[in-house]
Amino acid sequence: MSKTESKAWDNVGGVAYSNSQQQADERYTEWAQKYDSDVDTLKYESPQNLATELLKYIDNTPSTNVLDVAAGTGKCGEVLKKLGYKGIMDAIDFNGAMLEIAKGKSLYRNHIEMGIYPNKPIPVADGLYDAAVGAGSFGPHHLAPGCVAPIIHTLRQGGVAIFNCRATPQATEFRNALENEIDKLEKAGMIAKIEVKEMTHYAVECRETGNSMMSKVYVYRRL
Ligand SMILES: C[S@@+](CC[C@H](N)C(=O)[O-])C[C@H]1O[C@@H](n2cnc3c(N)ncnc32)[C@H](O)[C@@H]1O
User: What tens digit of pLDDT does each residue of 93-121 get?
Assistant: First the structure.
């Protein structure tokens, strides 16, 4: 592993293994300027993978409306645009410094600086969006499993949500909790599964697995 990769992994680990949401937020503020170059060093593929998957399931028209949840510096928006997405995008994220970088890329209509929390509606009209995408958003001290429901509420009937979670052994407990939450929403008739599969998260060798890091990608439709 090169020195540059090692430093980038330190920054990724600093937020992924933070002790509290406040600490994660502070670390994103410190990291924001270097975030893009660090995740590029680690060949972060989730934005590309999720955007590619999403375009399979939505109508790509100028009025299509996508919410990028925990959008950070706008990686998903960037890739969607590069892949030929023609519609509107809004970004929501609790970290102002990360959103400032996204703003500089002129990708999104709105930059909503706000946290997403379980049992707390996202303050947009119910059913506003055709789709929601969340890359690297779910995890300890990030989006909690209970955040799936508020995200689904922002979608119109038939709208698509795509998000992922690390597929590492270290993330098993969190992933199980996320899947329990998804099951609950499915049993309640709120969502239906389109596809769930593993895809590459970081392509370079990582400390957790000694290999590429995979993530589990969840694609669901609002009923
Ligand atoms: C790993 S970054 C991913 C950013 C972007 N989606 C990407 O793929 O590059 C995680 C982002 O989630 C944001 N975040 C974490 N918890 C959040 C919460 N509860 N509500 C809103 N944003 C949150 C952080 O500020 C950070 O920008």
Answer: 999 999 999 999 999 999 999 999 998 99
pLDDT value, residue 93: 98
Closest ligand 1 atom to 47 CA:
8
Q: 145: Cβ below 6 Å to ligand 1?
A: no
Mutate to test the pocket of ligand 1, among 124, 133, 142, 154 (most ligand atoms within 8 A of CB): 142
Low-confidence ranges of the chain (pLDDT < 70): none
Whether residue 135 has its Cβ less than 6 Å from ligand 1: yes
Number of domains in the chain: 1
**C-alpha 221 – ligand 1 centre gap (Å):** 22
Range of the domain at 23: 3-222
Residue 10 sits in a domain of what CATH number? 3.40.50.150
CA of 94 to the centre of ligand 1 (A): 7
Cα–Cα separations (whole angstroms), residue 196 to 36, 53, 163, 210: 27, 11, 10, 24
This prediction has a pTM of 0.97
